[in-house]
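P.,

For your records, the input lines for the assembly:
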Amino acid sequence: MVEPTRDPPGSGSPAREQPPAALSDRLGYLLGRAHMEHRSVAERALASLHLGVKEYGALSVLVEEGPLSQQRLGARQGVDRTTMVAVVDQLERNRLVARRRNPDDRRAYSLHATPAGRRALEQANQAVEGAEDEFLAGLSAADRRRLKNLLRTLIAP
Amino acid sequence: MVEPTRDPPGSGSPAREQPPAALSDRLGYLLGRAHMEHRSVAERALASLHLGVKEYGALSVLVEEGPLSQQRLGARQGVDRTTMVAVVDQLERNRLVARRRNPDDRRAYSLHATPAGRRALEQANQAVEGAEDEFLAGLSAADRRRLKNLLRTLIAP
DNA sequence: TATTGTTATACTCTATAACTATA
DNA sequence: TATAGTTATAGAGTATAACAATA
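Structure tokens returned:
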């Protein structure tokens, strides 16, 4: 295992070595490496839109399922409400999400994606799909579908 | 995205929700969820052997490729040498790895797996294979091979 | 009394910088 | 001068505890 660390802060990717043979049949190693390498491609693709993966995920859920309270938005992704504060702060600063008050419960927000937020999500989806294409370049279209279906089966409750 | 957070420190798994539809076709989300859920199963399986995933990975590489210096052992996994100190400390405390001096370069260690370390690795491999079986329970043997092969293709240099 | 959002704080993980002993 | 291992420290990320406003 030892899922390798993310790319170094300063530079680009380090000169990666050959995967250790002792680990190359371990599912944890394969999932960790794939996840890390994909994330690095996806982060680059989203950077031009000033979105991190956390913000992208939250915006996606909000556009599809909103309006939502801040706590519900976090719960949909398994993220603590205290962590959501900074994520929504960031989205609000960029005018992609608006914090309205929920008149039925004035403790909670009613978070709405703005029109600019919906447009940004469309662009971000294209960017992320481009990143997936790049990452999956070595697989046929059928294999890409197979991979996603296998993963979906694994994480289905 | 927003690869969900690892299980909470205190409790077991939180009551997970249905995956957000907006993300269920995103490769990053699928890889992140799969990786996290598998890791949680693998950590449980290794806990009875007093091994973490980092220690397991290091021991695996050392048994297969050793003897190695501490820095080389880290480099094989993309891990910084400063991070390896505590990992090898832990393995040495449990008498699974011995730090000998390399007579050709007395700055460096020559790390060796002890006989107990090799025995522990065999047990750990069985435990991790059991964890994989548990995690992959929903897939046929052919699909399990397919999944690993697809992931290997993706991360191959 | 319980809950939403917030802040302050702590904890985990990992890297960078600086030190030592060797080369 | 450079490198292996070590330590101290800093940074990112996320959680817990405590607080104000509201229920």
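Two observations worth noting. Helices of chain A lie at 27-47, 53-65, 70-75, 81-93, 115-135, 141-155. Chain A touches chain B through 65 residues (CB under 8 Å).

Regards
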